[in-house]
Fold this sequence. Notes:
By secondary structure, this protein is an all-alpha fold. Helices cover 71% and strands 0% of the residues. The protein has 36 helices and no strands. The longest helix has 17 residues, at 20-36.
Amino acid sequence: MLRVLAKLHICKLTRESHGYHHCCCSLLCCFRTVSSLTDPVERIPFEKLETIDYHSIKFHQLRQILQECTSAGDLLSGMSVHTHLVKLNINGSIMIWNKLLSLYLKFGHIHYAHQLFDTMPQRDVVTFNTMISASVRDDYDAFELLHLFSKMKKEDVKPNHITFSGLIGACNGLIALRLREVFHAHTVHCGLSSNAFVGSSLVDGYAKQMRLEDAIRAFGEIIELDLVSWNILIDGCVRNNSKEHAVRMFLQMLKGNVRFDGFTLTSIIKTCSKPGDLKHGMQLHGCAIKLGLAHETPIHNSLITMYSKCEKGMESPIKIFGSISEPNIISWTAMISGFVQNEQSEEAHGFYKEMLRSGVRENDFSLSSILPVYGNLANLDQGKQIHARVIKSWFGLDLSVNNALIDMYSKCGSLEDAHLVCMKMEKHDVVSCTTMIMSYGQHGKGKEALEILSEMESEGLVPDGVTFLGCLYACSHGGLVEEGVRVFKTMTEVHKLNPKQEHFACVVDMLGRAGRLNEVESFIDEMGIESDVLVWEALLGACRLHGEMELGEKSAQKIMELRPEGHGPYILLANIYAERGSWEDKEVLREKLVSHGLKKQLGCSWVPLERMPC
């Protein structure tokens, strides 16, 4: 041990003659000796160490050693340094203990880190920031973060911008959502709300809560805006489906002479999601090419998604995908989703097989994207194969994947499998319940669908417009007229949701199937939906079902006025004439269909001719 301390004492001379790195390596060897103490000669009683002048040890050298241990991934040597510090009872520089804390956290030894944190002779803001960052990375709950912050305040350690940016960024759970406002108030009290780090965390947090106005106000408090701040706000606007705000902020950023980067373009391209946005999307594509950013994979991925949504067909996305030097899983998933959106299920399946052959493994997003393909193709065998891959890949716990499985099994006609997937899910969300309600509705099980709605509300889940649409659909196909009327009233009067044309059409269809055609007309008049083509189409279908010619003619005439390019009303009304034996009227209507240049679309069906293995 004396030789060890002597060697530490001449460290400065060693550094000058052999270099600093060599000195650190030599010291590490000494610490290993101290840690093991296997040689009886080296066993010096601890009371004799009190006479040693350990202050000759240079604290910055110990910090350097711990830093090298952390960088090199040498946990054993770092623990040797810890042993040395404990045995010499060194309570000096707090930086050394912070380095040691970072070492344990890097290797995932959370328990050791907490023990060290609790026994440290003193703690500063770096100590607390290190623990807060570790808690965020390991998804600790809000109470743990609150405990650390309270302890920090109790010890009179003043938080800084790093502290608050970490705390605010961690507020993602339901309980922690209110904490974000508490921490926001503390930042104002400490004069840190105008800091770029803190302000950006607030903007991102409020945007994730879908509180865009609060996010914009927090952004306005930042004094020195940088590119990161702008990017976070624009991305938040996109996440909140506010194209108007996103574009306005992008233009405001350009006016401020802030040069955008690939992340900015990736976010703003996402605002182009409809056919009318194609021109704007192509302009952004041109900007990417002009600034030399078009080679970045994230931009390619966003362009694939944009063209898939805005342009008919997949010609442009295929060209863009072919220009990517190293497509990642996001690139493949974007292509598969594009094929599904353009109703090209066979092509999506082929692309999925190509992805697997290239060695790219699925993730939860790609699995959620490919499963609807087999629902659209009604290919149950292939869907079960994908389900097997889900189980093997441990994505069976993912909520979106399970929701896609329920939908796939339902469309393939296997309601039992859909129910089984739903029952095995650890938790459900609104999408899970809505998908199951739609599944029961498609199979004429209205009572079971309404039971799901009741259970959903008892679990605290708030149904949305799509949920109520599924319930109305289930009541319509299950013959539950009175229950369906109550569901409609609950949606409008209790949940204060404004019904859309699909809801009105479902109510009309439900009343029409039950033969209550007079009530349908009264409902249309009361709701003021005479110009809704879906409502008249639903009524025309009910008129054909019950052979109601007069009301059927009125409905068909309304549809022809509202949608003159459609052939549907001609065909349905002609069938009503045929069923009533009015062959002359049917022939006149057929001639009218031809004179308007309209043609009935041919129906089609398919059966699998061979297996489609992955």
